[in-house]
Design a protein that fits this description.
By secondary structure, the protein is of the alpha/beta class. The protein contains 16 helices and 13 strands. It has a 7-stranded mixed β-sheet, sandwiched between helices. It has a two-stranded parallel ribbon with strand order 1-4. A two-stranded antiparallel ribbon has the order 2-3. Helix 3 packs across helix 4, helix 9 crosses helix 14 and helix 12 crosses helix 13. The longest helix has 27 residues. The two termini are 22 Å apart.
Length: 394
């Protein structure tokens, strides 16, 4: 069924040249997608299937559940940014895809109503929760909120979030980006007449790598990993491939293995720690290059946030590999900041985005130090090591 959908979309793109069909031609069903799990439940749990068919069961992501609980069960809604990441919503038409609903056997009545990311349509919290009804003025997906919090309001503005995973997002204005290389066209935010899209490339393993170093006894804390890595000037030729969850764009190999290559008798724990941290920067550089190739925006500044962005070694190496200025704000929690900004604008606390931009404060900026040829040589060497770990699992 999925093969037929991709083939049909490719044929339609050939005839119409509409980018939404180009994006659909690379559609894949993966076990990490919650839609696949919902289909399994509907197929194997008769009680849920009966309830869904009779309008007694609803489906939504975490945002829908929170809004449902906060309003005392009055609302079953989601915003456009969260809907675009659901796997059932077409960001090009801003509607649920009937063909996918039929393919997954999901009744349309189960789905939450899609609304704007900010405004007064979310209503009030139930009085018993906080002792008084509190207006809800914003609901927005985490990476969309991070883009907003990083004040990436202009087309081409780019940010990287270094959290559990790495997410590189670029503001593509009013046009969604179609890709067959693993970039996702998503809604950044929709508020009244303003509709902003973003393209997203990701790497699943980032903070998980830091935690793994601690579990292996190579470091006692995230801060110590940076100190240990900085105690050596290189990795002694050791490379690490960060694919505990496979390798995402632009390689897109879910069967890739993780591991070290290039170990020698002279290899020490500090070399291993530095190799792991450098692998995070290599993955950012891979996705960054893909974004530049496909979207072709001039990008001299990348804003970063997330817990791992406190690691100076990773950020400096990212600046060297991308040739861009890397800017870290004084707060690394940009998803929370972005949601607060949008809620504040919707509530009248701030007049507009221009007023919000004045609130942004930069902690430090990292400028490229390595020459382009040297940085490219490092990335090519790491990419050659990556090739050895692809298609490992059957």
């Amino acid at each position: 069924m999925m093969w037929g959908l991709r083939f049909g979309a490719k044929c339609l793109y050939t005839v119409t040249r509409q980018k939404r069909f180009l994006a659909a031609s690379d559609l894949k069903a993966m076990n990490v997608q919650i839609v696949c799990r919902l289909e399994w439940v509907l197929q194997h749990v008769p009680e849920v299937r009966w309830a869904a068919q009779n309008g007694m069961a609803v489906y939504g992501m975490l945002d829908s559940w929170l809004l449902y609980r906060l309003t005392g069960g009055k609302l079953h809604v989601t915003d456009a940014s969260c809907a675009s990441a659901s796997g059932l919503f077409d960001p090009f038409t801003l509607q649920y895809v009937d063909l996918l609903l039929r393919m997954y056997h999901i009744p349309a009545s189960m789905l939450p109503h899609v609304c704007d990311s900010g405004g007064d349509h979310f209503g009030l919290t139930a009085p018993h929760l906080f002792g008084h009804p509190v207006p809800i003025r914003c609901s927005i997906a985490d990476q969309s909120a991070s883009l907003f919090g990083s004040c990436c309001f202009s087309e081409g503005d780019t940010k990287v979030t270094l959290g559990t995973g790495t997410f590189l997002n670029v503001n593509t204005g009013r046009q969604p980006h179609a890709s067959i290389s693993g970039l996702y066209p998503l809604v950044g935010w929709r508020v009244a007449d303003e509709l902003v899209y973003m393209a997203e490339g990701s790497s699943s393993d980032t903070a998980t790598l830091i935690n793994w170093l601690q579990d292996m006894g190579l470091a006692s804390s995230p801060d110590e990993t940076s100190k240990i890595a900085a105690s050596v000037s290189h990795t002694d030729g050791v490379m690490f491939i960060p694919s505990f969850s496979g390798i995402q764009a632009p390689v897109n190999d879910s069967r890739a293995a993780a591991g070290f290559i290039g170990l020698k008798p002279t290899t020490r724990p500090a070399h291993l720690v530095r190799a792991v941290l450098e692998s995070i920067a290599f993955r950012i550089a891979q996705v960054y290059q893909l974004l530049k190739q496909e979207i072709n925006y001039p990008c001299s500044l990348v804003r970063v946030d997330g817990g791992v962005s406190s690691n100076d070694l990773i950020l400096q190496m990212t600046a060297d590999l991308t040739g861009s200025q890397i800017e870290r704000a004084d707060s690394v929690e940009m998803s929370a900041v972005g949601a607060a900004y949008l809620a504040g604008i919707s509530a009248g606390v701030w007049k507009d985005k221009e007023e919000v931009m004045k609130l942004r404060k930069v902690d430090v900026s990292f400028m490229p130090k390595d020459k382009n040829e040297k940085a490219e040589e490092k990335l090519n060497e790491w990419t050659r090591a990556l090739d050895r770990f692809l298609h490992w699992y059957s």
